[in-house]
Amino acid sequence: MWDTTSRTFRLLELLQRNGFMATERLAGDLGVTTRTVRRDVARLRDLGYPVDTRLGVDGGYSIEPGAVLPPIHLTTEEALACALALRRWQDDVDGTLAAGSLGKIVASLPPRARWIVDAVAAVTLDTPVDVLEPIDHPTVDIALLGDLARTCLVRRRVGFAYTGRDGTSTPRRVDPRRLVNTARRWYLVAFDLDADAWRTFRVDRITGFAATELPTRERPLPDPDVEGWVTRQLTVGWQQVTGTVRVHAPIEAVRRWVAPAWGSVEAVSPEVTVVRAGADSHDAIARWLLLVQADVEVIEPDGLRAAFGRVAEQAGRASESSPANPPPVTGAV
Q1: pLDDT of residue 1
Q2: Which runs of consecutive H residues, i.e. helices, occur in the chain?
Q3: Which residues contact 57 (CB under 8 A, 6 or more apart)?
Q4: Do the beta carbons of residue 290 and residue 311 sit within 8 Å?
Q5: How would residue 130 be classed by pLDDT, with cut points 50, 70 and 90?
Q6: In this structure, which topology does domain 239-316 adopt according to CATH?
Q7: Where are the domains of the chain?
Q8: How many whole angstroms separate alpha carbon 75 and alpha carbon 271?
Q9: Ramachandran angles phi, psi of 196, nearest 5°
């Protein structure tokens, strides 16, 4: 049996999670009568929660959309999920903003839930050994991100200054359509009115944002697969050189090493996979493909063959080195 307070917060949780719910369904989920549901809704309203009522035979309740809510009721698991997400989010936005949000969530929790969140934070280390971090990882203005998202939704033309790779800032007039988060960065997909073409813009390079009252023109997106299109656009800048190799391994074993931004894989037999790869140098491609731990045949170009030779020479020199007084080995075993 629920006590009155627990049941009322359980009702709030159901409405926040599901949106509109019929009175009969609420009564069934809470194990009470419809009259008790109406009394609990009245309690929520007394606490300041804007609960909307739908009358009729299929009537029920919902939290009024767009309203400013009092503190949201979170379960321990939901609070922990928010805390973990905000810890990761600090890498991408203003750390002070994320830390402030996290502090408010933790402060509003009951002692038991707060203890669990604090315990996880105290004993957890973020060690991204399974990914390569970008050399530059600028934070994103969360307010700008919100403004861009709003103009995408309401279809309003915007202007801003954009700083290119060479450091030059130029004014842009665009019709924004999508935001894409990839490779630990945020990108705006927009139609550049001056270039008369679709473009991607790194959000951290946008300044002087100004929304206008002019509606955007209806245009088809450059590709129905926007994420794939953005990846291809970024690949043009990332892949300074390319190469094709034949890897003697099943495609399942090879695919995990080849992100879409860096190449493609094709199975030519159950035990052979062709990889078309790109990077900033042939040496980088060679070192990366050796991680597959399978025999590799270079199809093209000769520059990639030479790169494998240089990598092999480096490995050979490492195997032949034998210092007279090797340093002591320290660290975890």
Answers
A1: 47
A2: 4-18, 23-30, 34-46, 76-89, 95-107, 111-123, 142-154, 226-238, 251-255, 282-289, 302-320
A3: none
A4: yes
A5: very low
A6: Alpha-Beta Plaits (3.30.70)
A7: 4-63, 76-123, 142-232, 239-316
A8: 49
A9: 55, 45
Q: Residue 63's beta-bridge partner residues?
A: 51
Position 216: which residue type?
A: T
Nearest-angstrom CA–CA distance, 185 and 91: 10
Indicate the pTM of the whole model: 0.54
How far apart are alpha carbons 30 and 53 in whole angstroms?
Answer: 18
> How many residues appear in the chain?
333
The string of pLDDT tens digits covering residues 282-320 is 999 999 899 898 999 999 999 999 999 999 999 888 887
Determine contact, residues 98/90, Cβ cutoff 8 Å.
yes
pLDDT, one tens digit per residue, over 44-54 is 888 878 888 88
Question: Is CATH 1.10.10.10 what the domain over 4-63 is classified as, yes or no?
Answer: yes
Six-digit token string for 140: 């994103």
Q: Respond yes or no on whether the N-terminal peptide bond of residue 215 is cis (omega within 30° of 0).
A: no
Q: φ, ψ for residue 245 (rounded to 5)? A: -135, 160
170 token code pair = 């130029």
Collapse the DSSP code of 292 into the 3-class scheme (helix H, G, I; strand E, B; otherwise coil) and give the result.
helix
* 129 band by pLDDT with thresholds 50, 70 and 90: very low
Which residue reads 């800032």 in tokens? 169
The domain 142-232: what is its CATH number?
Answer: 2.30.30
Q: Which residue carries 């020199």 as its tokens?
A: 317
